Structure formats: structure tokens, C-alpha cells
């Protein structure tokens, strides 16, 4: 590509003559014209050299308006016509010149004047110029039909100008062969090989051409065969003015010295294969003062756009089709001379700056195919010369700015594929010169303004893929120059205006995917230039008019057009026609003469008669679809002549007779569908009345991949079908085929449908070897035996229903992609192990088999239909958690007994659990929607005392029993009231589900509290919400029949639970069906329950069976809701889930093979090294730290209630893991884990305050308490003993309250000793486990000392003044005051602790009943200020950091 620079001569196209005396000078312009008004002089004829000089000087006066690049004097001996003898010294050059003619086929040149004249001087040859001495110095043979390799011209030692450029519209050169390496040994300063056909690489010594100013080897055809790197020596060519490499295959260029070429005005390296960061290659800025043209487009450059702000003469800036990133280059707005900018097809982002309005000379701006965004600036009318604006394929938003409608010189306005909104303004009428208006693929809306039709110069109007509405005006007829009109994919309504009669140039019309109605516009019949008509997916009706024979593509499918199809008989040039899904009727017209037809779809109409005739070998038809019509008769024989046929669909007609053998031999059958699957072959003849056998010649259809012959009357076997080597999809369902299924080994089947035939025998083993099987349908046959296992493929659909298949269902174990499964009506037996991995499973029908158990269905969120009726399934209803789409489930006629996992499934509309008897209780959905009934198989009774508000005299016992049964979802006969009585007591109130039955439930207890003091054991300790006084209460003793289920491995201590008080919805996703726990082996037991080692989903787990009561059940669920959301940590035992009643309440965690730390210490105490102890203590601290940090999740605490060595487990590699976090409950355990009955926790590991004030009753173990317990755990690890093991529990409590601490082992290192002393003291201050972990992670105690010494600054907010005890509230009870003063004395008055000085503030928050006997301190804050000595010891530093 070249652009004008400077004219050489100002001479018009006519021959010029200049007279001087008796001599006439004749000037003939050459063919090559850099500017149409500036031809070059090619030949001058004069009488003498003197006269020539004078005449030439006179000629120069004609050309005074031009700038001369060079002037070449012409020697007398070689331009005078009378000179006919060649001087001997020029004979060598003559041979070289003649080689041009011989090598480049001179006889066929466009102009070879004098080349055939043997007496003429070579200086008179067309295209040859000589210097004053007669040496050839210029060769200009451009556009002259030169063909062949370029000869060696290095013998022309004076040659400086070589122009063999190649292509113009009607004249070309075809110079080929290797690029001439001799060229570097010449004196050339001008080389023009534009549009060459050279191959190979450039010579490495290209830099030897030090005088080179013009180097043009660009290729406009983009097919240049030069490749490799551009020699780095080209950087020596500092005199370069014109440098063009475009269209070649060069992949590397050195640009480091580009700024040295100060005379360069043209630089074009576009359309090559260069890569790299252009800025890194050149530098931050390009400084070329004469540069006018800069082209680097269509390469692989990246980084910021090249900065040419200092190229003040820049006119053209082209950097399109690269990977440049960044924003719009602001520097161009300060370059006022730029005419054209093209930076399209890059990775540029951001908005277009409003400063672009400064570019007053800009006439073309191309920014398309980038990621520019934001609203377009409203400045476009400030660039008066702008005529092309291409902004398509970006992310621009907002409306089309008003200034665009005032940019009156616009000819091209392309805004398509953006996110523009709003409507087209009526001001578009100002754009009188507009030729291309493309706004397709935006979000534009509204009606089209009539003013649009005032743009009568429009050639292309593209409005498709928007949200336009309304009718199209008849004003459309004013756009008589239109060639392309696209209105598709909008919501236009009304008739298509019949406005095309005068559009003589219209080639394309697209009105598809709208709501147009009425007739097809008949005026299109007169448009003889029409090529493409697309009117599909509308509501057009009526018959089709005849169209011009120029139409090549016609798509009118999915309308309501009717009438016959004879209107197409004149469209003999048609290449594609689709009239499917209309109402055309009558016989088919012949296809004879449609010699260019490639695609023909007449399906889903009402065509009758026989298959259309006229198929010939010349037709390139590859797609023929006549399906879903009413065609009759035998298949048309001439279809077999279609050698290119790739898709044939004659299905859903009324064809009869045998399958034409010729069709099966069309081995070139290839279907290239819209989904882009090349070589996919389809032959569809299904749903007809074809008879006979499947022809044996089908085995020779080597390209056949899809064969559909279903629902015919075919008979015989399948032997030949499976011999087709590339068969992918086979459907022969619904026929009369019999015999056995042949071996499918070696086939590449993806879809196989043999259903509804008479096939028998076993399934061939080759099914298991299929790698790509996606659909397998063998239903309604007589097949027997097992399904081959394992399947190497992973089908999406399996239908084996209505056969006689048997055996296990283990072939399902390896599947994960199933969406449809139907095994009904067979005799399959055994369990289904798992379906959990099949997340896409939608429908399952396994009814009428002998299946014995089902897996969990939890997490199958796509499951809609599940039918397992009429089997032998026992145990529990499968878990339906997260089955969000399930609408139908049928488990009737089985042996199920447990429906407790039948969670509420909101989407369920049909459910059947009938014809089996469940063990009570049932959920409401199971009983009400599913029709389940339950019974009690092992009767046991329990007394329940309930206190409700009311009066015995008005108490309705029958209604009460009915309400209790309804709320508990149990039968009424299980509830019996033993006695009622009225009392007046202090009770704790709270709302419950009983309120819905008008029952004010005050408390529930499993023991009876008599009225008489003599037999009273005190009030029940059950936890209820609030406190009320003196209410009239009915005490009801209720006898409820309980169910005790026997299990082979465990016993359930499941007491009666008021399920109206228990909500486990928040933990439902953690529920694990007990049936999934396999191979349980008991490995331990205690007061907490029994621990089993088991297998769950092929993983070894620990299962701890919990012994709990009613309140503990509710507490457990609350804790589980937190723990299940806790992120995993390597030093915390992984909680995996739990099982729920009526199965035993069990906690499932990871299995730690190293066992309990306490047992490990007892067994290996003397063998445990200090390093091993340290490696155990640090992980424990990290685990506890993780729990503390996790407590911030939705502001809930995750606090360990029982941190002790017995609750630390060890992995196989003896890595410590904290267990039983948040899961310990108030159970009486063995001595080593003794607890109180007041929900305080394990005494031996508790702080004095926790024991004294019982703060754990309300807030659980605080972080301070856990820090104290951690110190005790360190003591256990160091000693290998339990704390206070020989002292009674009560005495332990007294010692701890009085401040007696455990004796720290003498061999404890200073680090652990300091931490143990510190956490002992931090019973009065919150300990940070982050600090503890940091200390334990230090390499040695000295480094810890240094670190702590740097952190001894006490902030102002940490200093507290003593509180005046007299100002404390005085409404405490005697007990409360005693505890308070006892605490103050311990922390402030002890004489033994003279240093450090302790300052404290006490801010108790209490909550008391009116009797003042049940006050609880809910929080206590103590802050300390320690006065440290200048050089504290390591222990003192840690103690100070801890607040001691």
C-alpha cells in the first residue's frame, strides 16, 4: 500500500513538445504515475546536446510548481535516433540488460519497445535509462507482465534505481525465485519489488546498501513468501526514506536504531508475523520529523501503543490487529495534522476522550473490535472533515450523541456490536452524505423515525439485533440506492412495506425473527439484483410471489406461508432454500435444472405426492430434508445420483417399499451441521412404512455415522448394521427385528436405540468396552442375563426397561454423567450403592425389580422424577436433602420401615409411600402427601410431666391429647393422661409450637415434682427462656408409648424429645444416613457413649454414638450448625457429619490412627523427647487458635468446652489434632474427666473464676478459660499425668478457687515455664493464642526475650484506675456480695503479690430473679498495668505480656 508524497514532474497526460530553433524536444510520460497528475518522463528526443540542455531548461520552467527529487542527465550518443552503433565498452552491460528480456518472458510484456530492435541502443529500450556516460542507471519495468526469475544484474555497476513493482488492476509482474542476494553488491539507492513472488529470506548483509533510500518489498496479496528475521544490518540504512515490508512472513525485526533514520517518511511493516512489546523494541517515543505514514498493523505486537507525539508531519497512523493494550492515545489529539487513525482489533479499553475534537483534519477514525467503554463524547461535529467513523464491536454505552447527527460529512457510521441504548433521533436527516449506517447488535429501541428515509444516499442500512418496535414506513421506498437492508432480530410488527420496486441495486434483505405479518412483499419480484432473502421466523401468510432468478439464498422457514411451491421453478440459480415449517401444500415441483443447489429443506409442510424428481450428477446438493410431509410411494431412485449428498432426511412421511440398496452405497454421505461436527453422516428414514431387511450393502457405507430407521416395518437381524466402520448413532427402534445383538466390539457408537423390537439373548460383552457411549436404549425386547461390568463409557441415558435382565446393579457404580435411568420391568437384585456423583440425574425409574436398598439422594438438585416402586427395598427412605427439583417420588410396594429422613421437599407434588408399614414416628409430608402409615413394633412407655397455664376445672383432656398427637405427628392412641393437678409455682415461660394449639406450655420434665415437701426433690433443672411468678398451672402427667429400635451394633438411649422445640434445618446438609456407615467396629466406650471405627464412602471414619437427653439434643444441633461451617485445619479433627434419630445420634469425624494423646503419654511417657513434646504442644495451640478465629463467623463462638489431653488425638504421624470442640456435653464421665452437674465443665482444667461464679452456665468456656486449660494440658504433656489425680473433686475446686496452682515440672524449659505461669495468671485477662503460637514458633528463648522486650509499651487505653467499691450497686444478694468481695480481695489485697502493681476495673452485669437468689455475672473485665524493671527476665517478659 502506498500513499502520495511529492510529485516528480508536473506534466499532464498528453505528450509535450518543446521547440528551440530548428529542434523539437518530445517528452513522453511513462505509464507509472505516483500521482495521477505527475507522470515521469521516459524518453526525450533532441537534435543536439546543446539544444537539449537549453530546451530541458525551458521545460523546467513548466514544472516550477513541483519539488524535484532528482534529475538524470541523458548522454548524447544514446538518445539521438541517428546513433546506431554500440561502443565496445557497453557490450557487457548490453548482455546483462538483454538477460532481463530473456529471463522474464519479454515477448509477452505489455510494452517491449525497442527490445526486439537489434540495431537500437539498450538506452532506448522501454524502461531503461542511462547516465551521461552511457551506463544503465535506471530500470523501470513496473506493471509490465514480467514473468520468471530475476537474472543477476550485479554487472550493471552504475545501476542505482530498480523498479520491478508488480500488481495493478489490469497489469502485473510475476517475478519469482529466491530473493536476489547479489543485490547487496550493487550501488542501488532505490529498490521497488512491490507484489513480488520471491521466496526465502533477505540477505544478512542488506546493510551494505548504505545509500538505499527506497526499499519496497511489500505484498498486497498478503501471500508474500519471504520469511524469517529481517537482518539486523538494516539498521545501517540511515538514509532510508521509504521502507515497506508489508504482507510477508517476517517474524523478527531490530528497531533499536529506528530513530536514527531521520529522513524516513514512510514506514510500513504491517501484515507480517512480528511479535513483541513494540515500545521495548523502539523506546518510549519515536522521533522522526519527516514521518508521514506509520503502519504496523496485523502483527503480534503488544504493550502500549507506539508514541509518535514528536512526529509533527504524521498523517497516517495504523496499528490495527495487534494486541496493544491501554487507553486511547491522548497524544494524537495534540497532533493536528493526522488524517487517519486505525487502531482497531486490539485490547484497548477506557473511554474516548473529548479532546479528540482538536483533530480538525481527521477524516477517518477506526477503533472497532476493542474493549473501549463508557459513553461516546458529544464532540463529533467539531471535526469538520470526518467522513468515516468505525466504532463497532466495543462496549460503548449510552445513547448515540447528538453531535453525530450534526457531523454532516459522515459517509460511514458503524456503531454495531456495542451496548448503545435509546432510539434513533429524527436529526439523522442531517446526514445527507451517509452511505453506511450500521447500528446492529445494540440495545436500541423505539420506532424508526421517518427522517431516516431522508438519507437517500444510504447503500447499507443494518439495524438488526436490537429492540426496535413498530411498523416500517412506506418511506423506505426513498432509499433507492440500498444494496443491503437488515432488520432481523427485532420486534417490528405490521406488514413488510411493498417498497422495493425502485431499489434496483438491492442485493440482501433480512427481516427475520420479527413479528411481521401479512403477505410477502411482491415488489421484490422486480428486483433483479437480489441475491439473499431472509424472512424466516415471522408470521407471514399467503402464497409466495415469484422472485428474480438472481436469488441465490432463500430462507423463509417458520412462517405461515401457503399455496404450492411452483413459484420456485424459475429460481434456477438457487444455492440454498429453506421453506420448512410453513403450510405449503400440493405436489412437489421438480428440481430438474437446479444445478447449483447445495442445501434444500422443505420439511414440516403439507406437501403431497411423490418425492420430487430431477436429481442429477451435476447437482452439488449435500443436504436434502423432505421430512414431516405427506409424501407417498417408493423412494426416488435418482437420489442415488447425488454424489455429494451428505444429509438425507425422508422421515415422517408415508413412504413404503424396501430400503433402496443404492442409498446405502452413498459412501460420501457427510453431514456438516450447524453444531460444527465435520464428517457427521446422517441418513434418516424413520417413521415411514418401509419393509424388508436392512440392506447388506450398508456395511460398504464407509462414511456413514448416523442411521435412523426407527418406527418402520423392517425385519431380520442386525448383523450388517454393526459392520459399518464409522457408525456413531444407530436407531432401529420400533421395528420387527429379531435375533441376538451382534458383538459391538470395535465400533465407535455414541448413541444406540434398539428398543421395541423382538431381540433376545444376552448383552454382548463389547458394550463394556465402548468408550464413547452416551445413549443406550434397549427397552421392550426379550434380553436376558447381566449387564456387562464395568462400563468404560459414561452414558447420559440408559433405558433397559421391559426386558428379562437380572443380576447386580454394580454397573452403575462407575457412572457420573447419567441424566435418565430406566431399569424398570426386569429382575435386577441387590443394592444400589451410590447415585451421589450423578449431579445431572433428572429421571430415575427402577420400579418392578428385586432391588433391596437405595443410597442417599442428597445433593441431586436436578432430580425431578424417582420411581422405585415394586421392589424389596428395606431400611430407610433415602435422604432427599437438596433435591430442589424433585416433583415425583414413588417408593410404594416395598419393605421400608423408616421415614425419618423424609425431609420436607418443597418442590414435591406427587409422592407414594403406600403398601408398606413404617415404624413411627413419621414426618408430616410422609404421612399426609405420601400416604405413609406407621406402627409400633416394640412398646415402651415413659411418663412426661407438662406444666401449662390454665385451670383443671376447665381442662379439655381429649383436645389436649389430640393436639399433642398432632404436633408430634404420632397416633392419638400413643398418648394417655395419667393425672392432672393444679399448683401455683414459680416457673420459666417461653413460646413453643404448642401455642398454635392454644396451649401455653411452661415446662416439660421427665420427672414428677410432687406438691408435698416431704417427698420433694426440688424443681427440675431444665433450661427454659425466661421467668414468671405465681401463675395458675396445670401439672399433667402423660404416659407416652415410645419406640425402642434394636440395632445389631449399638443401643439407642434416645429419650422422648419434644420435636416442636427442635429445629435441625440449619444442619440438614450435615446429616449422614446411618445406612452408609459400613464395617463398624467398636474401639472405645465411656460415659459419653461408644466409639466405632467405620467406612463411609470408602474413607475410614470415627463414629461416636452419643448418649444425650432432650435438652442436650437441642444444644447439639445448635453447635453442629456452627461446626459444619468451620473451615478445615490440619490441627483440628475434621467434622464430617452426624446421624439423627430414630437412628442413634452419632458424630462422624476423621479417624486418627495415633489414638488419644493421654493414652500415648501413659504408654510412651519415658520415651517422649523434648522435641516430640514441643511438636505436640505447638499444633494444639494452632488448633485452638483456629477455633478462636473461626468464632467470628456470623458472631457465634466456637469455644472448646473440654480442652484436655484426653481430647487431643494423634494422626498416624503423631501430629496433634484438637477434638470434641463444641461437642462436649454435661455428662458424668470417669474420674479423669469428672464434671459437675451444673453445666460448668471439667473442674480440674477450669479457672478459679469459672468455678466460683459459674459463668459457663451462660456463656460457655471463655477464651481466658481455654488459655488456662491449655496451660494444664502443657502440664499433662510434661508430666504424663492427670492434674490433681489423687485429690477428691471438691477439694480440687477449693484449691483452685484459693489460687493453688499445679507445680510446674523442674525440667520444663523456660519457654513453657513462662507460658504456664502466664496462663495461670491470665485467669484475669484474655490471652491471645496468636501470641502463644508466636512464642512457641520461635527458634529459642533468647529470640523470644528480644521480641517481647520490644513490645512492652503500655497504651493509654490499657491503663485503668481502681474502682471505688462503695459506688458499686447495692442490690446484690449476700451470696453475690460475698463472691464479689472475695474476688476483689484476691486481685487487690493480697500482700504476697507486692509487684507488679495491679490496677483493675470491675464492671459486673447481672441478671437476677425477683428473689435475688439467682444472680449471674455475665461478664467481668480486668485490665492490668505492670511496672517492669529495666532488664526483666524472660519469664517476667512473658508474664508481663500476659498481664501478670
TrEMBL record:
The chain crosses the membrane at residues 1019-1043. One of its GO terms (cellular component) is membrane. Keywords: Glycoprotein, Kinase, Leucine-rich repeat, Membrane, Receptor, Repeat, Signal, Transferase, Transmembrane, Transmembrane helix. One of its GO terms (molecular function) is ATP binding. InterPro entries: Kinase-like_dom_sf (IPR011009), Leu-rich_rpt (IPR001611), Leu-rich_rpt_typical-subtyp (IPR003591), LRR_dom_sf (IPR032675), Prot_kinase_dom (IPR000719), Ser-Thr/Tyr_kinase_cat_dom (IPR001245), Tyr_kinase_AS (IPR008266), Tyr_kinase_cat_dom (IPR020635). Coiled coil: none annotated. It is found in: Membrane. Gene3D superfamilies: Ribonuclease Inhibitor, Transferase(Phosphotransferase) domain 1. SUPFAM superfamilies: L domain-like, Protein kinase-like (PK-like). Residues 1077-1336 form the Protein kinase domain. It is a single-pass membrane protein. The keyword Magnesium does not apply. This is CLL4A clavata1-like receptor S/T protein kinase protein. It comes from Planoprotostelium fungivorum.
